[in-house]
Specification:
The chain is about 35% helix and about 15% strand. It is an alpha/beta fold. It has one domain: Aldolase class I (TIM Barrel), CATH 3.20.20.70. Strand 6, helix 4 and strand 7 form a beta-alpha-beta unit. Helix 8 packs parallel to helix 9. The chain is globular.
């Protein structure tokens, strides 16, 4: 693809991003936690549960982009402090979303990884601001965005000075209404061919139905995903956002057992950008 001097595959070695002891892009990393940080008690219960089940990072929204202005918008700075407390107890690094350029400083202070949500993928002012910080960034694909548009947004962040970008597929909007979105798993081998950046998958938003999350998660790993990010809540009926797609801790624990078995069986992904599977004319992806 043209004009992808930094995010494009080119002659770059595969990017490995270190977050504490984690090696994102080299080791399989599962991120789990609540959609929203609702209280200290709720967050600590879930953090302990996902850590026990084998999650390597804690997710939780302190600032929430909601379709309705009357829906729960998150706890803001209070939520960030709760996430920091959960990290101190469990040892799990924290990832949380940044919505506004004015909040970058706060979130950078408390989080280990910053997330750019699908709705903000092309918020170029925010991308440039995020590019100035040293923390890794997870860039979610917009629900109507092409691969080229997605990678161009990663290029914005990297061009501003931050090379530590993680791509995350979270489903695209199609005519199907049974699922919340349509999870595009072909994006994984495509990004392994087109880019050197780590690729994660969010089967929670991609499917929007709890029973579909485990099979989509397993399929993503088999296709070569570097990690997953899923939503877990100890009492979904009381959740203030996305209650219908939150896994119970015991469901998450069972899924983690299946993931471990699959990873052990595969030893390596079915496809990870290896040259023996790449068409001859893409074996040296041009960035001109």
């Amino acid at each position: 693809m043209k004009n992808l001097k930094l995010a494009g595959r080119g002659d770059h070695e595969r990017t490995v991003i270190e977050v504490g002891d984690l090696r994102i892009g080299a080791d399989l990393v599962v991120i789990a936690g609540p959609c929203s940080v609702e209280s200290e008690e709720q967050t600590m219960i879930i953090a302990r549960a996902v850590a026990k089940a084998g999650a390597k990072m804690l997710r939780g929204g302190a600032f929430k982009p909601r379709t309705s202005p009357y829906s729960f918008q998150g706890l803001g700075l209070k939520g960030l402090k709760i996430l920091a407390k959960a990290r101190a107890e469990t040892g799990l690094p924290v990832i949380t979303e940044v919505l506004d350029t004015r909040d970058v400083g706060w979130v950078t202070e408390y989080a280990d990884v910053l997330q750019i949500g699908a709705r903000n993928m092309q918020n170029f002012a925010l991308l440039k601001e995020i590019g100035k910080v040293e923390k890794p960034v997870m860039l979610k694909r917009g629900m109507f965005s092409t691969y080229a548009e997605w990678l161009s947004c990663a290029e914005y962040i990297m061009d501003a000075g931050n090379p530590n970008v993680i791509l995350c597929e979270r489903g695209i909007r199609t005519f199907e209404t049974y699922t919340r979105n349509t999870l595009d798993l072909s994006v994984i081998p495509s990004m392994k061919t087109l880019s050197h950046l780590p690729v994660f998958v969010d089967p929670t938003h991609g499917a929007g139905r709890v029973e579909l999350i485990p099979p989509m998660a397993l399929a993503a790993i088999a296709a070569g995903a570097d990690g997953l990010i899923v939503e877990v809540h100890h009492d979904p009926s009381t959740a203030q956002s996305d209650k219908d797609q939150a896994m119970l801790p015991e469901q998450f624990e069972r899924m983690m057992t299946m993931i471990e078995r699959l990873a052990e069986t595969l030893k390596e992904p079915v496809f990870n950008g290896r040259l023996d599977f790449v068409p001859w004319n893409l074996r040296k992806e041009s960035t001109e």
